[in-house]
Prior knowledge:
heterodimer, A: 247 residues, mainly alpha, MetI-like fold, B: 300 residues, 2 domains, two-stranded antiparallel sheet, disordered C terminus
Amino acid sequence: MTFAVMIFMYLPIAVLIAQSFNSSRYGGRWKGFSLKWYEALFRDSSVINATLNTLVVALVATLVSTVIGTSAAWALNRYKSRLQTSHYGLVYAPLVVPDVLMGISMLLMFVSFKVELGLTTVILAHITFCLSFVAFTVLARLQDFDFTILQAAQDLGAGPWRILWKILLPLLGPGIAAGAMMAFTLSMDDFVVTFFVGGPGSTTLPVKVYSMMKHGPPAIINALSVVFMAFTFTVAILGQIFTRKKF
Amino acid sequence: MNTMNHKSDKKLPELLSTAPSYLWLFVFFLLPSLLVFAIAFKSADSSGGISDSWTLSTISNVLRQDYIIVLWRTIWVSVVVTALCLLLSIPVAYWIAQQPKKYRYWYLLLIIIPLWTNFLIRIFAWRTLLHPEGFLRTALLWLGVIPDDMFLLNNMGAVITVTVYTCLPFAILPIFAAAEKFNFALLEAARDLGASRFKAFYAIFLPGIKRGILTAILVVFIPAMGSYAIPDLVGGVDGELLGNKIALRASANRNLPEAAALAAMLSIIITVPVLAFMLKHKRLLRNIISIRRSAGDSTK
């Protein structure tokens, strides 16, 4: 059974990778090994552009959501009050709302307040859905954290900044890095929310893949998919390494 | 006076660390979610925007028969997908949980790795596979399993297959987490006392991993209800779900109030049972968070 499920999981990906090297235009039969789709891909300036957009959005969204998310995790862990109960609900809710709803609701807000759709709105939306994931990733780390260390540092005369730089960041660093890595992958992967809140000039790689699937030459997408896959794998493996490493 | 000062001194760090996320989510999550319900009572203006006046006509438009058919289809597809995911993931989780401890992590990793490929690319891979001249149909025709006029792409079957594919890891993880804690000696005990293998499985094992199964149902059912990209890319005309209608109304066939009304309908249908479910099993909240985190991806 497990074996059958594994075949189910890996067969599509294997076929896709094989197809990207197939010189036949519409797939189907194997017509010999070829790299021509990769060449066509790297000549396509709109693909390069979409890649740059994806990286800009992912970097900004990761940076902002990591800072805000870490601060949220800190508050959720440190204080037990009514405020934190509602705070918890607010941070939790985006995790269970389907992306379609998140996308449409943010689109409606941007339209109502006459905000022009584009890279900015995409970045705002990405920060929003990355934030909760960062907060809960860091929160999980904080729950194992021994707060008596802080007391000890204070007793030995360390100031708040010194405690932050010398104790908190080094000890919580791996947790925060794991959260950031998660935010980066989520942002880079997102299609649905970007589709809703994006505008002209904000095409990211997933949106580009989507429009190519709808209209473009099919064979190039195979090559694009494999390149994209290689990239996500690298980020995901780095993420795994960070998550595994305990302090 | 003095004590009040002291109190606000203590409050300040809490407020400072809470404010950024609280305000951000209030503005970019809570407010838009409520706005959806307000805009459902507006109508569209000629330029594709939202008119100023209030009306009930958008709501009554959305309760039209063709939308109700799509809504009903969305619900049953999600139920079928959830059932299939459970059916596949329970045996897998059962098997992995019984493997030697040092291998379990590697099996789990094998389950998670497909999630590292972009969601759209996984759908595209299925399109290649299910294509009329693709690998799967050619193979099945050659084997004589399917008739000549049967197609695998652009129908409800394709939507269900691909949705199960994308959701399966999220079902396996929580069930495995529960199965790993299950005491397998209980099954042997039941067998020794004369229970059949099947009876031991459903009377002892399934109740033992109940929490995992409930979590799996939630993490599969909710995204399935909101599914948009999968039916759009492999569903064809008859495979449209509610998510497609919302997207259509938000882009090509623009009518934002109608999109809002459909979204409001979807969120009510999801929220009411989910909330009831969660209030009954509060610990599920934490499970869902850790599952979505450990998988490093969300089902979109």
